[in-house]
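// run 5 | inverse folding | seed 20
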């Protein structure tokens, strides 16, 4: 049975389906959030013939976003989001139909790459998404020392300033700062101005007893050079203040990050800093002397990347080493990518030559932002027909520094 996926015509039913799937609290602000977050023509639905009557069987949406690649180019991407299948319609192929629809539409729109944050790790690999970026969650104690002798001169000229994210102009400053830094941090994903407004909008219901989200900017010579978002939470223990500051993703070069890191571990009344999204090669770990210099460290998946159009996506980034490898690409969800490709640093070309490596398109997505995929051969997730061919490919795709994590979208 083929399942029809069509554009949403009713924002209310789209939102109500999402709220059932994600069992979130329904507030007066939700409808406004929806309009802010997701362009009207980027919401899609499935209604199974025997499906639920008042709601959709499945929904998904696409945020138009931009992502920086190794080499510094910033390209448009489809940010897949709002994926949900009605609990009564699950495991009947609705997601599979929506994924096929998404890949076809994205290709037709001329966008080479799709990216997402996955709710569960097992869902998206089958549709050709590869785990492209890892992220650390780190806690630090009050007054943690950061040692970076060769950055001290530069950091001396950086000042920090605390503002409220919802204040006029703050979201625009954040976006400009993120775009400016993106080329130096491949993997950075920048949302549209609407997406920033969405992040800055916090209703009274959402906040309850929480602090409004603040932004700590790093500035030099009157210019924003970095920022981090944060929220503080009170706690008193044995009459002593021991609150927690929870902070998001660093934006900025090394000196800006150092100034921001020093400031957030030195906020009055706080005992612990929880950093929710730190790149695995962020200098922070080296500044504290490694994992045992933190209170705790956990590693999770951040961005998943899907090469929707392999031929178009491949030459958009640069490669660190030379390579010339014939790869048999398996791709069940986007058959136009399947087949044999000669991959070199300048192009992906169709070829009749014998395959030297066989792999799923998800492997190329996993390595697209520079994360090392060399271990996948040992893991038995890639087949090699010419010894050394996969190492050649993996070495060329790998960057010196691991890619930057993105915030959830
Ligand atoms: C995840 C979700 C969208 C799957 O939708 P679905 O319509 O049931 O998926 P399909 O019927 O198309 O299943 C496709 C395949 O994926 C598998 N699959 C689906 N969800 C899975 C999960 N959470 N874990 C592992 N496998 C899963 C199915 O078993 C099926 O496998 P098969 O092709 O070998 O038979 C749905 O369960 C859901 O809405 N979950 C809650 C919201 C959510 O997690 N959304 C994802 C946001 S990132």
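// decoded
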């Amino acid at each position: 049975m083929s399942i029809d996926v069509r554009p949403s015509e009713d924002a209310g039913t789209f939102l109500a389906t999402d709220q059932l799937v994600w069992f979130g609290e329904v507030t007066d602000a939700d409808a406004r959030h929806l309009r802010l977050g997701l362009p009207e023509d980027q919401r899609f639905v499935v209604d199974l013939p025997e499906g639920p009557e008042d709601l959709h069987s499945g929904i998904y949406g696409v945020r138009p976003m931009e992502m920086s690649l190794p080499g510094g180019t910033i390209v448009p991407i489809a940010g897949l989001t709002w994926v949900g299948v009605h609990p009564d319609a699950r495991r009947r192929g609705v997601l599979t139909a929506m994924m096929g629809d998404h890949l076809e539409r994205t290709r037709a729109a001329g966008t080479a790459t799709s990216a997402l944050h996955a709710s569960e790790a097992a869902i998206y690999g089958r549709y050709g998404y590869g785990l492209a970026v890892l992220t650390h969650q780190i806690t630090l104690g009050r007054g943690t020392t950061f040692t970076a002798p060769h950055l001290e001169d530069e950091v001396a000229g950086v000042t920090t300033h605390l503002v409220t994210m919802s204040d006029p102009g703050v979201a625009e400053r954040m976006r400009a700062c993120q775009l400016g830094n993106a080329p130096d941090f491949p993997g950075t994903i920048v949302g549209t101005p609407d997406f920033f407004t969405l992040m800055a909008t916090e209703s009274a219901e959402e906040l309850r007893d929480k602090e409004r989200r603040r932004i700590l900017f790093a500035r030099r010579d009157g210019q924003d050079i970095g920022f981090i978002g944060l929220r503080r939470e009170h706690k008193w223990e044995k009459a002593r203040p021991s609150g927690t500051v929870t902070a998001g993703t660093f934006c900025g070069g090394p000196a800006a990050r150092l100034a921001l890191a020093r400031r957030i571990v030195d906020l009055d009344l706080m005992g612990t800093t929880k950093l929710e999204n730190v790149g695995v090669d962020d200098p922070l770990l080296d500044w504290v002397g490694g994992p045992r210099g933190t209170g705790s460290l956990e590693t999770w998946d951040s961005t998943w990347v899907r090469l929707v159009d392999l031929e178009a996506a491949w030459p958009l980034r640069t490669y660190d080493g030379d390579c010339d490898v014939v790869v048999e690409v398996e791709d069940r969800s986007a058959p136009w990518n399947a087949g044999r490709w000669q991959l070199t640093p300048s192009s992906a070309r169709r070829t009749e030559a014998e395959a030297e490596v066989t792999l799923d398109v998800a492997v190329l997505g996993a390595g697209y932002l520079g994360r090392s995929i060399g271990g996948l051969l040992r893991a038995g997730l890639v087949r090699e027909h010419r010894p050394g061919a996969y190492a050649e490919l993996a070495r060329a795709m790998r960057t010196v520094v691991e890619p930057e994590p993105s915030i959830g979208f």
